[in-house]
């Protein structure tokens, strides 16, 4: 059976790698996981994940995309598809793969041929007006995350404004606030994965 693929997109520094690290750490006892990172000219995110996370090295693949990072997750997904196939070959029990995009603009989205679900993450330090810009990544993702809420007082961001704007463009689609440094809000993301992605509560 093919593993479920979750794409994680967002601007540079928003917390994509940290999100993968925290999710794999908290869910490592219940599901078989792996991760793929995309960077333009390095595999730095893969190294960070290997150093700070719980995934063994053979469950992490770093891809150097070159050029625009969104191309590797949307127009030409062959490198990521090959990496997923390699991970499945290494670990036939694999149930879920995180595909982290390279840091990109607000319009970056994942090809539906590459991932089954997508998460888009931004951070409060980019300003409270960011959700109002309603980029395609924020609109079309299955889950939208606003990270680093602890920085709101220091950058003059009003979380209630960000919440209002997110509801405006998201409609009924889920979104949440997090501080991944302390795991605040992470339980919402984990429950979303369990309920909406893995459907672990079916039949209960």
TrEMBL record:
GTP binds at residues 10-17. InterPro entries: CobW/HypB/UreG_nucleotide-bd (IPR003495), P-loop_NTPase (IPR027417), UreG (IPR004400). It comes from the Bacteria. Keywords: Chaperone, Cytoplasm, GTP-binding, Nickel insertion, Nucleotide-binding. One of its GO terms (biological process) is urea catabolic process. Its main location: cytoplasm. Residues 6-175 form the CobW/HypB/UreG nucleotide-binding domain. CDD domains: UreG (cd05540). GO terms for cellular component: cytoplasm. It is found in: Cytoplasm. One of its GO terms (molecular function) is nickel cation binding. The keyword Cytoplasm applies. NCBIfam families: ureG. Belongs to the SIMIBI class G3E GTPase family. UreG subfamily. Homodimer. UreD, UreF and UreG form a complex that acts as a GTP-hydrolysis-dependent molecular chaperone, activating the urease apoprotein by helping to assemble the nickel containing metallocenter of UreC. The UreE protein probably delivers the nickel. Facilitates the functional incorporation of the urease nickel metallocenter. This process requires GTP hydrolysis, probably effectuated by UreG. This is Urease accessory protein UreG. It comes from Arthrobacter terrae. The lineage of its organism: Bacteria, Bacillati, Actinomycetota, Actinomycetes, Micrococcales. The gene is ureG.
């Amino acid at each position: 059976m093919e593993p479920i693929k979750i794409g994680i997109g967002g601007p540079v520094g928003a917390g994509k790698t940290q999100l993968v690290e925290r999710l794999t750490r908290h869910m490592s006892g219940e599901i078989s996981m792996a991760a793929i990172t995309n960077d333009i000219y390095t595999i730095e995110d893969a190294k960070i994940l290997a150093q700070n996370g719980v995934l063994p090295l053979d469950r992490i693949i770093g891809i150097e995309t070159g050029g625009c990072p969104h191309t590797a997750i949307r127009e030409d997904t062959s490198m990521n598809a090959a990496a997923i196939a390699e991970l499945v070959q290494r670990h036939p029990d694999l149930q879920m793969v995180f595909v982290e995009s390279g840091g990109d603009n607000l319009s970056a989205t994942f090809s539906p041929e590459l991932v089954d679900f997508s998460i888009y993450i931004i951070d409060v330090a980019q300003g409270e007006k960011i959700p109002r810009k309603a980029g395609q990544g924020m609109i079309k993702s299955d889950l939208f995350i606003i990270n680093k809420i602890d920085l709101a007082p220091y950058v003059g961001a009003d979380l209630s404004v960000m919440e209002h704007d997110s509801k405006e463009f998201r409609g009924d689609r889920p979104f949440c606030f997090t501080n991944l440094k302390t795991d605040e809000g992470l339980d919402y993301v984990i429950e979303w994965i369990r309920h909406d992605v893995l459907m672990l509560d079916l039949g209960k």
